[in-house]
Amino acid sequence: MNTKYVFPEGFLWGGALAANQCEGAYREDGKGLSVADFLELGTVSSRVKDFKLTLKDGVYYPRHEAIDFYHHYKEDIKLFGEMGFKCLRISIAWTRIFPNGDDEEPNKKGIEFYKNVLTEMKKYKIEPILTISHFEMPSALVENYGGWENYELIHLFENYTRVLFTEFSDVKYWIVFNEINCAVNDIHGDWPICIHTGLKMDIGDNRFEKIYQAIHHQFVATAKTVQLCHKMLKGAQIGAMVAHIPSYPRTCDPEDIYNNFWRERYKELFFLDVPATGKYPYYFHKYMQQNNAIIDMKEDDLRLISENKIDFIAFSYYMSIAFSSYPEKYQEGSGNIFSGVKNPYLKASDWGWEIDPLGLRYSLNYLYDRYHLPLFIVENGFGADDDALQEEIDDQYRIDYFNSHFKEAYKAIEEDGVDLIGFCTWGPIDIISAGSGEMKKRYGFIYVDKDNNGQGTLQRRKKKSFYWYKDVIASNGGTLQ
Ligand code: P53
Questions:
Q1: Does residue 68 fall inside a structural domain?
Q2: CA nearest ligand 1 atom 21, residue
Q3: Which of 85, 160, 409, 450 could crosslink 456 through cysteines, CB 3.0-4.6 Å?
Q4: Annotated catalytic residue: which of 167, 179, 268, 408?
Q5: 371 backbone dihedrals φ, ψ, rounded to 5°
Q6: What are the CA-CA distances from residue 66 to residues 6, 125, 442 (Å)?
Q7: What is d(CA 150, CA 155) in angstroms, rounded to the nearest whole number?
Q8: Does 219 map to a domain?
Q9: How wide is the angle at C-alpha 278 spanned by C-alphas 277 and 279, nearest 5°?
């Protein structure tokens, strides 16, 4: 056996899912509607002028059934157990616990479901990692409160997290908001509802101000959650999470270097700086002034932020992007909501996401150097349209992707000295894509028979990568090539 890439003892190999992308059962056992329940098929489908929180007749909503993890969790977790998962990151659907977000009492059936899921994980010695909010806030909080712009959301979120910490007190790893930095991508646009922050926008609204006010409230909620977690759960660790997409200047033109420097701050690093250092960065107030934004911040809340810092940094990593101050000169780069210009040195997936394993080693060093906190890769994976007609689905491209990324993670740990807790592969079983609502953009080691229009038996099938990942985990990286 090749022992070149053996990871440290206890390294958390695993996978990650989000409730709204896998569970389905969108109205079962008292679940309320979340913003995700209104998303249709198509790229970031909430970003249309007529987006409303009403369900239309005859329209297919991919998340309503998803892969029906709600009824298949035993079978699915068994398969994760068979692969030898050391950890599994799932998210709690807020609407299963508080269907409207502001209910007097939590929904017992919702709590019971996650207890059952956790029991199942325990059977296979899989360490749970719970995301508290993953793109699925109760839609009633948008309708009745205007989302995170409203200070009241901090209290409602606190009630919710208190229930989670009480009911799931064995859980050691917690993540507050999934990819909290995604919110800034709603600033430049004209869609009326921003689903990450639950904001309703009218024509003429200062979108910039509303979004940063909401983000401030999410930071306060993060600090409260950290405080509560540390108080209620001894030995638990809680982190903040961003979509980490390193941005490279397309050229060494100082304009590109300088503008890219700020782009990285505004789009991402700011979102870690606040919860990790406990304070707003020096440029924040100037930046608000320049955008005619006045953010209401209470003294007590700033103190709360400074006194309740996160324990680790969680991030997703799929790709890097190239940035140019003159984008019109270049071909457009990777798809989805964080776009850049094409990087001539990298190949892309069929969805335009540029594959950059070395970018992961760079990122691990970059983030560790900046925050001096343990890191956790809580998402990484390769979306592809697998050929299900094959007897065994041969997803060698996915194996190649993971093989190269795992190796760079190894080097960051062993050759550079980065403190990395674990590695969650995204969508270890095929699920609904967050960006496009597609099933066709598959990430799994396990295939699910379902197509973009919702047709299929939901039957699970192991792909070639299933056996490959199983061997990687069993050898703790020893089989990496
Ligand atoms: P899909 C943008 C860029 C990088 C990661 O994405 C992102 C996004 C937002 O779409 O999101 C994370 O399914 C997210 C997951 C999501 C995963 O990336 O669009 O936390 O919910 O499924 C992959 O291919």
A1: yes
A2: 434
A3: 450
A4: 179
A5: -110, -20
A6: 36, 26, 13
A7: 10
A8: yes
A9: 95
CA of 47 to the centre of ligand 1 (A): 15
CA of 228 from ligand 1 middle (Å) equals: 28
What is the per-residue pLDDT across 144-187, written as a single tens digit (0 to 9) for each?
A: 999 999 999 999 999 999 999 999 999 999 999 999 999 999 99
- Closest C-alpha residue for ligand 1 atom 16: 434
Residue 108 lies in a domain: yes
Active-site residue, 23 included: no
Average pLDDT, the chain: 97
The residue whose CA is least distant from atom 24 of ligand 1 is 433
> Which residue's CA is the nearest one to ligand 1's atom 10?
435
Distance in Å, CA 232 to ligand 1 centroid: 31
Q: Which of 293, 408, 398 is nearest to 349 (CA)?
A: 398
**258-302 tens-digit pLDDT:** 999 999 999 999 999 999 999 999 999 999 999 999 999 999 999
Query: What is the tally of structural domains in the chain?
Result: 1
Residue 42 Cα to ligand 1 midpoint, Å, equals 14
Residue 36: pLDDT over 80: yes
Q: What number is the average pLDDT over the span 327-351?
A: 87
The Cα angle at residue 94 between residues 118 and 231, in degrees rounded to 5? 70
Which spans in 233-298 are helix H? 254-264, 270-277, 284-290
Binned at pLDDT 50, 70 and 90, residue 339 comes out as confident
- Buried/exposed code over 141-163 (b: 16+ C-beta within 10 A; e: otherwise): bbbebbbbbbeebbebbbebbeb
The answer to whether residue 481 sits within a structural domain is: no
Round the CA-based radius of gyration of the chain to a whole number and report it: 21
What six digits make up the tokens of 290?
């320049």
pLDDT at 334 over 90: no
Q: What is the distance, to the nearest Å, from the Cα of residue 388 to the centroid of all Cα atoms in its chain?
A: 27
Q: Which residue from 336, 363, 398, 452 has its CB within 8 A of the most atoms of ligand 1, so it is best to mutate?
A: 336
Whether 338 is in the pocket of ligand 1, judged by its Cβ within 6 Å, is yes
Q: What is the pLDDT of residues 223-267, one digit of tens each?
A: 999 999 999 999 999 999 999 999 999 999 999 999 999 999 999
Q: Which CATH number does the domain housing residue 232 bear?
A: 3.20.20.80
179 among known catalytic residues: yes
SS3 readout for 402-458 = HHHHHHHHHHHHHHHCCCEEEEEEECCECCCCCCCCCCCCECCCEEECCCCCCCCCC
